[in-house]
Each structure stands twice: as C-alpha cells, then as structure tokens.
Amino acid sequence: AKQVNSSNLAVLAVQELDRGSTAKKHDYANILHDALGKEWEMIKPKTAWNENYIFYRPSVVTFKNQPNDLIIPSSEGGRHGTRAEFSKGGKNIRIISTHLVSGADNGEAREAQGWYLSDYINSNTIVMGDLNQKDLPAAIEKTHKTARDQKTDSTTNKWGSYRKWGQKTASKSVTSYLDHIAPHDKTLVKGFNQVGIDGKTGNLTQ
Q1: Number of alpha carbons in the 13 Å side-chain half-sphere of residue 73
Q2: CB of 45 within 8 A of CB of 20?
Q3: What are phi and psi of 53, to 5 degrees?
Q4: Rounded to an integer, what distance in angstroms lies between the CA atom of residue 26 and that of residue 31?
Q5: How far from 156 is each of 94, 165, 198, CA to CA, in Å?
Q6: Cα–Cα distance between 11 and 202 in angstroms, integer?
Q7: 185 in the Ramachandran plot: left (φ > 0), alpha (ψ -120 to 50) or beta?
Q8: Which residues contact 197 (CB under 8 A, 6 or more apart)?
Q9: In sequence order, what E strands does the chain have?
C-alpha cells in the first residue's frame, strides 16, 4: 500500500486477492483497502468466485458505473473480468481486471478467452491482470498493445519471481509475462510504475 500511494496512481487492478463461494467475501480486499487509506474507493466483483478487484482515487478519476462481471469460458472452469468505467478530462476510460486461465491446455484456453474478451473492448478499454504468457492473445493484439513489459531479467529474475504467502524468499521463477497492461494501439503510454519481487531476497521492490 505504501508503494502504491507513493506512485501517484489513479487506478489499481488487483487479481487473485480473494476467492470465495459467494460474492460477499472480500476479506483480503478490505485489508488492502484499509491500508491504502481514505483516498481510495474499492470496486468489488459482483459474482461468486471472482477474485479480481479495482481500486481508484476519486480525486483523480471520476467513477461512472460498474457493468456486470464478465464470465470468461475456459476448459479449466470460468475466469472472470471485473469491469468499471471512469472519466478523466472529458475522456471515458473502461477498465477490465481479469485473470486468464492456466492448465494443461492453457495456451489454447487463453486464446479462446482472448477472443471472448475482444468482444467487450474498444479504443477506451484497458485490460489489466494476469496473462502468464509471452504475448497477448491474438484477438486482443489486433487492437491493443502490451504496455507492461515484465520479462524476467536473466540475472536477478526480478520481475518474474513469485514469493508464496509466508515465505521470505522467492520460490518460483518464470520467463514469460506474469501481469499485463493492455491499452489500445493508439494510446500514448506516458509511463507506469511496476512493483516486483526481487529474486534474491524475495522483497517487494519498485
């Protein structure tokens, strides 16, 4: 929360934060919201098992509405997309916070999910969340680009390491993208902050 607040962010998408059989359990999301402070509002998912959240600062962006969650089909069970619409400086911004599937056929499954998601995105849409593969799904890539480059550094594994809950060091490294920010091709990306785990110490670094 301290790193987020020092980054002067307007919108924060968080995935895999809570998982529950009802849409009413938001324990970890509430902990993060409390830590972020009163400047932040939280958009909770509307459907059961959805673990994707959106946080925003009303002082920076204006919340307009929250469309229904997307239920993204997959062979491993449905994945979700939490949606919210904002405005800033007279421009509308649509955010989808999502988590694409993993599994034995994860490549094909993600491509299928990409085609499904592509029906819900336009030039004002930013897709944010877990991708876990080298590139965007082909359907999304027709209109959107990857703004978040999270390839693993060959020396430190800094941006491609996991630290499991309760562990002091990073325990898993990957060579592909973990998280992504996908704005429209014509969007001018002025900059963004990334928070990663140091592969050697397991500590969060910015």
Answers
A1: 3
A2: no
A3: -125, 160
A4: 9
A5: 35, 20, 7
A6: 25
A7: alpha
A8: 158, 161, 162, 163, 170, 203, 204, 205
A9: 11-14, 41-43, 53-56, 62-65, 70-72, 79-88, 91-99, 125-130, 161-162, 172-173, 179-182, 196-197, 204-205
Q: Are strands 91-99 and 125-130 parallel, antiparallel or unpaired?
A: parallel
Coil, helix or strand at residue 98: strand
**pLDDT given for residue 170 in this prediction:** 64
Q: Tens digit of pLDDT for each residue in 55-66?
A: 999 999 999 999
Backbone phi, then psi, for 154, in 5-degree steps?
Answer: -65, -20
Q: Say if CB 150 and CB 169 are below 8 A apart.
A: no
Confidence of residue 172 (pLDDT cuts 50, 70, 90): low
Residue 6 CB burial class (10 angstroms; 0-12, 13-18, ≥19): exposed
Concatenate the DSSP letters of all residues of 101-125 into one string: --STTHHHHHHHHHHHHHTT--TTE
